[in-house]
Amino acid sequence: MADTSYSLITMADPSYSLTSPHLTSPHLTSPHLTSPHLTSPHLTSPHLTSPHLTSPHDTCSQKLPPKLPPKLPPKLPPWDFPVIGVMGRTTVLACCTYAVECYMCAVECCTCAVECLLYVRRGVLYVRCGVLACSENGVARMLDSWGWILKQTQFPSHQQNLSNDDLKLKRQKRDWVIPPITISENERGPFPKRMVQIKSSRDKEVKVFYSITGPGADTPPVGLFVVERATGWLNVTKPLDREDIPMFTLFVHAVSSNGQPLEDPMEVIIKILDQNDNKPKFTEPVFTGSVPEGSRPGTPVMFVTATDDDDGIDTNNGIVSYSIIGQDPKEPSDPMFTVNEQTGQITVISTGLDRENNAEYTLTIQATDQEGKGLSATGKAVITVTDTNDNAPIFDPTTYVVNVPENEVGYEVTRLTVTDADTYGSDAWIAVYKIIKGNEGGFFKVETVADNNGLVTTVKGLDFEGPKNVFQLSIVALNKANFSVPLQTSTALVTVNVQDVNEAPIFNPAVYSVSVSEDLPSGQEVASYTATDPDKVQNQKILYSIGNDPAGWLSVNKDNGIITGNGQLDRESFYVQNNVYKAIILAVDSGIPSATGTGTLLLTLLDVNDNGPFLEITQLAYCQQDTNPLMIPIIDRDLAPNTGPFSVELPREARENWTATVVNDQLHIKPLKDLDFETYDVSVNLKDNQGLTNTSRIRIMVCKCIGETGTCEERAALAGGLGVPAIIGILGGILALLILLLLLLLFVRRKKVVKEPLLPPEDETRDNVYYYDEEGGGEEDQDFDLSQLHRGLDARPDVIRNDVAPTLLPAPQYRPRPSNPDEIGNFIEENLHAADNDPTAPPYDSLLVFDYEGSGSDAASLSSLNSSNSDGDQDYSGLSNWGPRFNKLADMYGGDED
């Protein structure tokens, strides 16, 4: 029996419901679906009713188009709603309260949460999770309120091919089912207030008692809902707040008077209807964003967001709309920005954004719920206008006139300064300089320094006497970043005047090579090496001198630069490397200050046959048992043809015991007979290819060899070499050592002189010695002035010791000791000459200055004390009066001569 009021739920009428095994609940029936217009597949009737509306007569306020769109959008968003089910073969639409109609039949409801399903009656499926449309090909589409497709998905084939048994309607035993109960939040009462009456189908058979359990009843918040035990009326006890708990799920229990359950517990859902009692809230206290300057209208800037605790799904209480109600500053136009009322995206609406004029905008944003018709809140959005390179650097000043000395490399010509209105330190502010004209010779460069100035320096030395002594440079300033808009660049003009300076004379060529014979006579010209002065206008005089002559072989005429030798050129000298002798020549002009140029003279010395051959080794040992000759290399310092082939000749006295030949520039010498174990000096006359002869002396030690190795037995050779004189000398040394030890022993044991004691005998009278216990305290008289000790010392003059060292000059090179004894004379002479010209050879003079200790002293010196030349001048007679302890002294010094 149906109740006349929609707020009253009675026992359901017999009806058909879904019998699919996939259906979550078989109790999805409702007694309130009385409208006959729910059978249209296109929902063309405006009289669609919904059990979710406050009034049972509310209809869908939005009419849907009679047909679906002819084609899908090019790109559909992904399916992100829970799958509700697959319907029949007809088109399914939804409206307002998300009631989904399936005209022919409801086939299956799969993967759907229980709370998403409301109820099904006569093929109409009511859901609250989404809006669903299905077709017979298994495609489920999500539609908006106007029928436009929002999302779609393809269901598996096993859900499409259903048997007739699945589609057959079966009668089910009726059971009590209650649709969701709605109640508005913030009710004013009076409380408790009845909401709905619950009745069991067995209330006519037995007395039924009702009770409820669940949150809001017997669990927190306890006592919010109560049920009248006898009548089944469900009451609310105080106002509800949807933002606190939007829905309550209770279970109703029906029992008899003896407590036996009459029905299974029934679920009752209480949905709290929203009221617009909350203002929107911005998610940030201040929203910040940025936009480049010069952005065009339509450029997105940022988003602002606001939330509303009210319901924005079933009502528009929580739907927020955005608007801009204020802008600061208002230049260049108001408004400069607009906001999308639905998404909250702020975009540029006007042109003229310029960071240099307005770097920041503050917008006041208003958020209003109920789609702009309800409660409002305001927030702040700060937009920073970021810099772009819309300002070119400008020279200040634009002209420069500078003087640059000639021949300076890396010289700072000038510093260029620019101004730029863009952001300091950014790529749009950093200047880049380029020389666009006047630097064809590559004499200059410009670079950016730390202060954004342009530093102009010389890359090559400028020449005042050259073809160009005035340069005009055109320099343009750009930025490190490209210009965002076409801009006119700034150009600076730099005029460089080259200044004349006193330049050093220049030798031509800088390195002069000359070939001369090493036996060049003294005073003969070696070369004429001159320099020219670049300062031709000044007409200066040039004087020449020797800068570096290691061997001291050269002289130069100071006026004409003619270089002569001193007759000591020697190609074989260690000053000569690869036949070349190097000297430095100086040319000094008469400018103020003077300038000095240097030139390098390379003398290639031509060889003459001035060195005879000699032996490389002059001391060696020869094994007596060896039959092979001794082989000694022959050296000749000259060059071919003044060297080999060599020949050898032995003097007459050497030919008696030795024979010698030359084989491949080696001397082969061996004895003609067995010689004693002694050392022999053998003279050898060597002759080179040009007939120059030199005598070399060889010291050969004939020794006994050890085994077959050919090495000498040194100890045996040494013993065999000692003669009688050597043995006599050794024995004499030993004898002398023994005599010395004997004399030393006698000296130690010599008889000592016994002197009489100075002290008197014990029986003589002695003076008494008194001891005093009083010690310490220091000097009693301490009234003295220590400053007297410093007299004369503090007044001494300051005297400084200065070590005088000679002026440092290039150190000469000393010739190593030659292996040929015949060269000793030349070796000593050359090294003596080098030492005489060596300023670093110790010792060098040093001026020693001693400290002055003052004139006069209060204390007499030791030399002022008078002393006698003889003891006769002294009077020792007073010693006898000093007591018995001094009697001996008185007798020794004060007595008579007898």
From TrEMBL:
PROSITE patterns (alphabetical): CADHERIN_1, CADHERIN_2
Subcellular location as annotated: Cell membrane; Cytoplasm; Endosome; Golgi apparatus, trans-Golgi network
Q: Where are the transmembrane segments?
A: 722-748
Q: Chief location of this protein?
A: membrane
A GO-annotated cellular component: catenin complex
Keywords from the named record: Calcium, Cell adhesion, Cell membrane, Cytoplasm, Endosome, Glycoprotein, Golgi apparatus, Membrane, Metal-binding, Repeat, Transmembrane, Transmembrane helix
What processes in GO biological process is this protein linked to?
adherens junction organization; calcium-dependent cell-cell adhesion via plasma membrane cell adhesion molecules; cell migration; cell morphogenesis; cell-cell adhesion mediated by cadherin; cell-cell junction assembly; homophilic cell adhesion via plasma membrane adhesion molecules
| Protein origin, superkingdom | Eukaryota
Show where the Cadherin domain sits. 175-282, 283-395, 396-507, 508-615
Membrane topology term: Single-pass type I membrane protein
The GO molecular function terms of this record are: beta-catenin binding; cadherin binding; calcium ion binding
InterPro entries per UniProt: Cadherin, Cadherin-like_dom, Cadherin-like_sf, Cadherin_CS, Cadherin_Y-type_LIR, Catenin-bd_sf
Q: Please note every region of biased composition (Low complexity).
A: 858-871
Q: Where is the composition biased (Polar residues)?
A: 22-62
Region (Disordered) residue ranges read 22-67, 806-825, 858-898
Listed name of the protein: Cadherin-1
Supply the source organism for this entry: Pelobates cultripes
